[in-house]
Specification:
This protein is of the alpha/beta class and 246 residues long. It is built from seven helices and 13 strands.
């Protein structure tokens, strides 16, 4: 018998650990699903070949696509070959991109964070800037990796929420500060998506889908980091949890 608690599948990175392949999800995402959204977190490995999408959809109530040190391969959106310092994870690409399309069609609630929002945009036909800091007029959205985590995840810049999207319906305010830990970002927005929030330099920071069959929200920042201390993060995860329980 299925539990009355909704289940959330979190897509794993595929990485080498001590010379062996491993499937990883940061604990902060797992904890936020359990504590903030009130759901049961289940890890979905990025296998080759991928797990069958139909089986995942039949056994999971919603999905969370996490951030990652890796980037979406530019071959999926017609971009130039990645630089030597751009970490790739083709296993995750092959799991996440088809699953995003299928889960959206099935109306499964989805929250897509950092790499996750980039995956969402690519899966639906958009493109990415591989180096946002090299785009004229944009500032450097990357974190200082030498700084303590509290500084890396501290407020970095302001975003403004646009009327008409999902974010405007679930948040208590329209302008607020977010953290920023990404080198890549949305370039051409996928036709089906709406730009829910914009940074002060014009970079798209949040997206949703008008007419989506289920909750679908993508965020370039990290609401899972110390979510309980931030009213914006609390509101986002509360809305996601409510969608899962429905």
């Amino acid at each position: 018998m299925r539990s009355s608690v909704p289940t959330v599948g979190l897509i794993c990175d595929h990485r080498m650990v001590d010379g062996q392949p491993a499937h990883l999800v940061g604990e902060k995402y797992i904890a936020a699903v359990r504590e903030a959204a009130g759901a049961l977190p289940l890890l979905i490995p990025s296998l080759d070949p991928p797990l069958l999408i139909g089986e995942l959809l039949a056994n999971v109530d919603g999905f969370l696509f996490t951030g990652s040190p890796s980037n979406v391969s530019p071959r999926h959106y017609g971009g130039e070959a990645p630089g030597a310092d751009s970490e790739q994870d083709e296993r995750r690409d092959e799991t996440a991109l088809p699953l995003l399309r299928a889960a959206g069609e099935a109306g499964k609630p989805m929250l897509c964070i950092c790499r996750g929002v980039q995956e969402l945009n690519v899966a639906l036909g958009g493109t990415l800037h591989q180096s946002v800091h090299e785009v004229p007029g944009r500032f450097d959205h990357r974190e200082d990796e030498a700084a303590p985590l509290d500084q890396q995840y501290g407020p970095a810049h302001t975003v403004t929420v646009n009327d008409g999207g999902l974010l405007a319906r679930v948040l208590p305010q329209r302008t607020f500060e977010v953290n920023s830990l990404h080198g890549q970002g949305i370039d051409r927005l996928a036709p089906a998506l709406f730009a829910d929030a914009i940074a002060s330099d014009g970079q798209i920071e949040a997206v949703s889908m008008p007419g989506a069959k289920g909750f679908l929200l993508g965020l370039q920042w990290h609401p899972e980091w110390r979510w309980a201390e931030n009213e914006i993060s609390r509101a986002i995860f509360a809305a996601y949890g409510e969608a899962l329980r429905k």
